[in-house]
Amino acid sequence: MALVRDIITDALVELGIVRPGATVAAPLMATGLSRVQGMIDAWAANRQTLARQLRTSFTMPDGDNEITVGSGQAVDIVTPMWINSINYLNPGSTPSVEVPIGQMDEDAFAALSIKELSSALPLQSFYQRNLANAYGTLFLWPQVSQDVTIVIYTPQAIEVPATLDTVLIGPPGYADAFMYGLAERLMTPLAVSAENVPMLLGPEGLAARAWRNMTRPNTKPGVLSVDAALTIGSGAGYNVYSDQIQGSR
What we know:
Elements: E1 2-3, H1 4-14, H2 26-43, E2 52-60, E3 66-69, E4 85-89, E5 98-100, E6 102-103, H3 106-111, E7 118-119, E8 124-129, E9 136-141, E10 143-144, E11 148-156, E12 167-168, H4 174-186, H5 206-215, E13 237-239, E14 244-246
Parallel strand pairs: 6-8, 7-10
Antiparallel strand pairs: 1-12, 2-11, 3-9, 4-5, 4-11, 8-9, 13-14
């Protein structure tokens, strides 16, 4: 957790632009702020930088099939780049039962011939960011014929800082990534050559190591699975050792 101005100052010290404890001139701070904003904005488009999943519930009103997602919108959260999973709460269930809703891509959504088909509960969903504004639109299909509680799980990005006094917060490992990542981005506008900061760059440089430390906990390996036909269990399957079909037992 650190103020943006402190991260900028540390990055400038790392590059040898200012000495520790020195006051940073306003133009340098302005350049640093714009580069921090660009860096955090770019991170929001990379799943490896997203350490937290946010659970949000809301009501899709009777007769609607679209809802706006974003700060100050019907679903009032920081606009996500994508939705990890989406469910509806089974009406009348106690305790509440979440039922998964499928997610369509652009082609599947475009292939829907009757987009305003009506049903009591949704089966599929389509989400995309809007180009005309900073929000996203969530589309449910079929269109609900009753109020339905929807639950979405979205990766939460770090908000782009607005001022030098904004506090950047992240899990362990993010502090170095903030500072060394910014130092790398400031090299071009400040005309710092790679020869002057040999420890910063390269696959084993401080910036690369900070990036790996930040993203490593967010990278989840896939679960190894085996085709059922290759296993011997309670059902029928092919036994590769005997070259025979294994019957149920």
